[in-house]
Amino acid sequence: MTELLAPAGSMEALKAAISNGCDAIYLGMQKFGARAYSSNFDLESLKEAVQYAHLRNVKIYVTMNTIVFENEVVEMKAQMNELNEIGVDGIIVQDLAALDYIVKNFLDMEAHCSTQMGIDDLDGTLLFKELGAKRVVLSREVEIEKVKEIKRLAKIPIEIFVHGALCVSYSGNCLMSGLIGYRSGNRGRCVGSCRKAYELIDKTTDTALGISYILSTKDLNTIDYINDLKELDSLKIEGRMKEPAYVANVVSKYRMALDHKITEEDKENLSKTFNRTFTKGYLFHEDMKDITNILRPNNVGYEIGRISKIVKDMYEITLTRPLNQNDIIRISHNNEDVILTVVKLYDKEGNLINKADDVCYIKIKEKISKGDLVYITKDNLYYNELESSLDKEFRRFNLDLRVYAYPDSKLIIDAEGLGFNYLFESEEILGEAINNPTTKEQVIKQFSRLNDTIFELNHVDFEECNAFIPAKLLNAARRDIVQGLYDLKLNSQKKRTKALKAKEKISFPPKTPYLTASVTTKEQYDACVSCGIEEIYFENVVRRNQNNYKEKDGPLLIGGYGGIHHYRKTNPFVADYSLNVVNSASCYELYRLGAKRVTLSYEMNKRQIEDLINAYYEENEGYPALEMIVYGRAPLMFTKYCPLKKMNQCGICRTKNYEIKDEHGTFPILSHDDCSTTILNGKTLNLLDELQSIKGIEAFRLSFTIESNEQVAKTINMALSKLNGRVNKAVFNQETDTRGHFNKEIL
């Protein structure tokens, strides 16, 4: 059966999801979850959530899908141990260290690979199946035909996103928030850089092409494709930051669709809670230029009419859909929004009304114009309807009873529910009825009062034997049986742990540090060769999320897990920065898979690097082989979407250079042959002055993207001088950041 997986940022949202028909919930705790700004759960509220869900046969998955720095590993493990004790069904992870700990320690609690891992092909899926994962959450960029093929060939449960907010970048491959604002998306603290307005600049002609929300995606909505989706294992709704009413709305509609009960009106009602307008996503072949909404980054609502007349301080609205008092509306005026709650609504005679179907009048202070469109962003009556569903029981479970009641004996009831049997035995002795013996109908009446439970009375077996059972005793028996069955259900789900096995130690001999370089053009490559760089990453690069694997000779730089699985037995390789490695256990796992070096994440600072090296040495009695990027424009975002196509510049990228600009700076756009895009940092990371003080690194990488071959040569010579301890006073022309992430902690 296809699982409907719902988000919960709070206990209220969890109950909303369950009461509207979800099969599983994913939620986060105060640490290690990728939504640090949602309410989240502490240990006590999580215990309550797990019990509430498990009684209703709903599973709980906890998100621990941030990268985990060395000084947090002990706390991470302790939290996982607590989750296992509570009875959590699975943990969603990004970090290899987190995955490895779950797989090696717990028998019943599953490891699920988060979308932040960037798994978008069969090779990556097979790798994590081999590593012990029980489920893979594929990247949102994977098309439905490929999803089905991966499921068929990998034979491991597959989870995909089907509704809600979309990242414009491949998840886990966006550093924009972290490196610009020091609030890392990989740490759950994304500030939503993609939801800002940017100006697109043609650098070749120095022409501004307009300001828009060029990176802001629409919300995913795949409900029209539910028959295709039913073939998959788990359908995930995004929304841990959303209110309970949103969760109730979306879960109920997908539940209806899965159960063959949805109408066109139900589908339209998805627009009545938060939406940025909808896209069918890459999953169902949306054209990349249509996946964003460049006009606004927040709630659009749905259109209900337009301003048709202005009479003094009154504005006439001609309606295409009803408007009610206390609705919240948005009036779009000259690309600006007027948002207000309809406290007072008038008819054409000026009388106050509480509902209008065709024409109505409102008074507002803001100046708007005839023809302005009107949208509802909160339908008050519909929200009231949603909120009334938050505490209902979506499904109830049969309670079957065999009642034994004989005069001069105790009342005995054998109850069956939730797959368990519970025997109730009264303390008091029943008396013989003088006039009115207790009937089966009276027993049924008392035991039918189950509205505050998850049960409904099914079968009652009761032989009338002239006994009198006080109603008070039947009520007490009902309460005792309900609680007894609850306890049996919850106590049956204690989780087990595995016996730990010794692991092989892996270490590398220390080497004198040297330089490597990554380049994007043949001219840059030639400049590196002429300067004596021996390890150059150019045509031997296998990027993350670009998985058209071809036969390659020699060592490779691999940025994705699929590439590691595909090439590890044929080519030596260096693991790239895009694997987001920030701790020693993740390094170890990559060495075990065959990596000869591991490139550290851009998001590490000096102390964190030292912590990693020290921990690795202590665990393995030797050093890790590490590479570190010390120069270059950091790739802030890698996306399947092309902002140039959206702005009608398709194909011109081959002859022109572009950048986007906000109030803080500019960000060059690097277009790739397959029309994917990298947004680069406008500032160049420059840690060359630090080279002598950075210990434990085997290779320092210079990353060249848009530099000329002259700049490449100049940078290499400067780096060689710094690495060898010589002073060189050459001045860089580009704006550089000599501190960046290296001396600051990214939260």
Describe the structure.
With 747 residues, the protein is α/β, with parallel strands linked by helices. The protein has four domains: 208 residues, Alpha-Beta Barrel (TIM Barrel); 86 residues, Elongation Factor Tu (Ef-tu), domain 3; 95 residues, no CATH class; 178 residues, Alpha-Beta Barrel (TIM Barrel), CATH 3.20.20. Helices cover 26% and strands 27% of the residues. The protein is built from 19 helices and 42 strands. The strands form eight sheets. Strands 29, 30, 31, 32, 33, 34, 35, 40, 41 and 42 form a ten-stranded mixed beta sheet that branches. The protein has an eight-stranded parallel β-barrel with strand order 1-2-3-4-5-6-7-11, surrounded by six helices. Helix 12 crosses helix 13. The longest helix is centred in the middle third of the chain and has 21 residues.
Give me the secondary-structure topology.
Layout: E1 3-8, H1 11-19, E2 24-28, H2 43-55, E3 59-64, H3 73-86, E4 90-93, H4 96-105, E5 110-113, H5 122-130, E6 135-137, H6 144-154, E7 158-164, H7 176-181, E8 198-202, E9 207-212, E10 219-221, H8 226-229, E11 234-237, H9 244-258, H10 264-268, E12 278-279, E13 302-311, E14 314-319, E15 323-324, E16 328-333, E17 336-341, E18 345-346, E19 352-353, E20 355-356, E21 359-363, E22 373-378, H11 380-387, E23 397-404, E24 410-417, E25 420-429, E26 431-432, H12 440-447, E27 455-462, E28 467-468, H13 471-491, E29 514-518, H14 522-530, E30 535-537, E31 541-542, E32 556-558, H15 561-567, E33 573-575, H16 584-592, E34 595-599, H17 606-620, E35 626-632, E36 635-639, H18 643-646, E37 658-662, E38 665-671, E39 677-680, E40 684-686, E41 699-703, H19 709-723, E42 736-737
Parallel strand pairs: 1-2, 1-11, 2-3, 3-4, 4-5, 5-6, 6-7, 7-11, 10-12, 23-27, 29-30, 29-41, 31-32, 32-33, 33-34, 34-35, 35-41, 40-42
Antiparallel strand pairs: 7-10, 8-9, 8-37, 13-14, 13-22, 14-21, 15-20, 16-17, 16-22, 18-19, 23-24, 24-25, 26-28, 35-40, 36-39, 37-38, 38-39
Helix pairs in contact: 1-2, 1-9, 3-4, 5-6, 5-15, 12-13, 14-19, 16-17
